[in-house]
Amino acid sequence: MSEKQFEAAADTLCDELKNVVMSIPESKRASIQEIRLRSGKPLTMTDGTSTLFVDNAGRILYSISKNAFIVTQKHLYDTFRRLCGYSVYSCQNEIKNGFITIKGGHRAGLCGTAVIENGKITAVSDISSINLRISRQIFGVSEEIIKKIYPLNGGVLIAGAPSSGKTTILRDLAYRLSLGMDCRMMRTAVIDERGEIAGTYSGNAYNDLGLCDILNGYPKGEGIMQAIRAMSPQVIICDELGGEDDCVYAEQGFNAGAYIIATIHASSYEELMKRKQAQRLIDTGAFKNIVILESCDRPCKISEFITI
Questions:
Q1: Most CB within 10 Å of its CB: which of 60, 143, 158, 248?
Q2: Where would I find the H helices in 64-136?
Q3: Domains in the chain with CATH codes
Q4: What are the respective helix, strand and coil percentages of the chain, to the nearest 5?
Q5: What's the Cα-to-Cα distance from 9 to each of 29, 101, 127, 131, 239, rounded to whole Å?
Q6: Are 42 and 71 contacting, i.e. CB atoms less than 8 angstroms apart?
Q7: 152-170 residue pLDDT tens
């Protein structure tokens, strides 16, 4: 991850928080994956292997200390408004789902008080913590996968724990497949429900997905069917399957002649096969290849490759 991506993410914080995190050593910025804010608690950052704290001058602390910089409710309020572009109403649809996607493909996860109407969450108020996940694009991380799966004989299910690099690999697969790198060029559609894969902001994709057609903000099912109707894709890429209806969507795409490449949460093959939803996905016949990623300590590294 380049230092510029860290700077772009830091720019979404309120001024005081931004000044603190931008004071950390430049050599450390490129490794930071998350910046986490909790009301009344120390500001923390993670680099994939450890949790880091900072003092007011931006010096790195490796354990909780009385010198650690403390996040206040005002910091959270000012940062939240900045993340929303000072228009909270315009972001309500994302907020009720617990996150805000921002310029560059970075994503801010939100915790607070749920506002319930008719049994459904319609908003989140009194924000108590924010987790700013820094988006990164690493070219070449899917090269090994393409060499194993090409020519395609079925879809690909990429399983991994949180922060193991699933979305980063999806980005690179979209880039390489659409441009014909280590394969022939393939018509590739990306169903980017949460805006994380392409990093679309105000109509512009800030991550380079080559020649992909990007359906931004579409629910997976509607996006898959819209892509099939309008774009005749050979490959459909989407993030985080696991919902009750996802088996139906994957099967529809498969029956329409498209290869489905998607991610799912599971830290091992054994854990994956214990999940009924994963078994249902595999039973659709849409997936012939399973990629298991290693832990967040080694993001984007393949632990197992299984052909069904």
A1: 158
A2: 73-83, 92-95
A3: 3-133 (3.30.450), 143-307 (3.40.50.300)
A4: 30, 30, 40
A5: 11, 11, 19, 11, 21
A6: yes
A7: 999 999 999 988 999 999 9
